[in-house]
Amino acid sequence: MLAERKKQHLDIVLGSGSVSGRIETGFEAIRFEHVALPEIDMAAIDLSTEFLGRRITAPFLVSSMTGGAERAQDINHNIAIACDAIGIPFAVGSQRVAIDTESDWGMNLELRRLAPSVPILANIGAAQLNTGYGIEQARKAVEMIDADALIIHLNPLQEAVQPEGDRNWSGLTMKIAALCDALHVPVVVKEVGSGISPATAQALAAAGVRVIDVAGAGGTSWAAVEALRARTPAEAAVASAFADWGQPTAVAIAALRKACPEAFIIGSGGIRTGVDAAKAIRLGADLVGQAATVLKSATSSPEEVVEHFEIMSAQLRVACFCTGSSSLAELRMARLEAVPSEG
After folding, report:
1. What pLDDT shows up at residue 6?
2. How far apart are CA 172 and CA 168, in angstroms?
3. Lowest-confidence range among 70-74, 133-137, 259-263?
């Protein structure tokens, strides 16, 4: 059942190109003040940064997108080859199917062989911590791909509107804290498209979580995805009512940076261009994640994934140049202005 559900998710996202909800990212409401005299050499702009103890060439992360579907092995291999070639990290999708069954769907040490020089992030769902998962399964997720960190993904809305969803979320903060204490790698917590509030982020930081991925609204809406795979009109009606649920990505990043100034923040959720990435970094993201935007490239070849991020990097570099920013640190100080509302 799990494998079939993952296949349905993949088919829906690939078939539609994007399953967005009724909400924008918030990036459209802001723009950079243009610097007509940058006084820098565009070729000398440094886009590199540090993540999980490794130097990466640009502030990008291929976010979790595939779990137990049969195509996951080819997708993950394409991503691994591409990410190692261009020097950026990647996260695998949920490893639940691989842990629970005899089929690993490519979630094995071959990924580390294909990507020896970049951070790789393992992934399990928070809800599974109340269905029998614990330290043993978390360690297995990390060890099976030789990961540099473990993502615990939060998807309460998706679980709530999914007919087969796991809806007992009591006591999970303490269980996440226990994993932080027990694991030898950092724990990353991410949403899947509704955002992480400052209060939740502060609770996670107190529990020992090292990295928070806001995954705000404006990208793939999993409520909309679940509405499309609903078995009855009633189930579809419940899910579709939440297509505008959550905090827009831009709002979530800014609020989280203000509330948690020392946190390592990944900004994701509807990041479509290098200009979006630049805005996310300016608002407080240390790294920018993409999933659905990369998915079609990842189903094709490593070369298409490389080309995608070459375009993203080129766009980000132009944004830096036209704000007079010679590094990501300087980009974080670039001037922003609100886009005037129409009418």
Report:
1. 59
2. 9
3. 70-74
Answer for the pair 251, 281: CB distance below 8 angstroms, yes or no.
no
Q: Which two tokens stand for residue 108?
A: 């094995």
> CATH top-level class for 2-338?
alpha beta
Would you mind telling me the total number of residues written for the chain in this entry? 343
Question: Which amino acid type is present at position 35?
Answer: V
Strand 287-290 vs strand 264-268: parallel, antiparallel, or unpaired? Answer: parallel
Query: Is 247 annotated as contributing to ligand binding?
Result: no
DSSP letters, 191-248, are ESSS---HHHHHHHHHTT--EEE---BTSB-HHHHHHHT-SSHHHHHHHHTTTT-S-B
Is residue 231 annotated as involved in ligand binding? no
- On the CB side of 14, CA atoms within 13 Å amount to 18
- Strand 211-213 and strand 187-191: pairing? parallel
Closest alpha carbon to 283 in 245, 256, 323, 309: 256
Distance (Å, whole) CA 234 – CA 219: 25
Distance CA 290, CA 64 (A): 8
Q: Is 54 annotated as a binding residue?
A: no
pLDDT > 70: percent of the chain? 92
Q: Is 272 within 8 Å of 293 (Cβ atoms)?
A: yes
CA–CA distance, 54 with 88 (Å, rounded to integer): 10
Per the annotation, does 66 bind a ligand?
yes
330 is in an annotated binding site: no
Consult the annotation and say whether 63 binds a ligand.
Answer: yes
CB 65 within 8 A of CB 12: no
* Whether the Cβ atoms of residue 251 and residue 279 lie closer than 8 Å to each other: no
Report the predicted TM-score, pTM, of the whole model to 2 decimal places.
0.93
3-state DSSP assignment of residue 315: helix
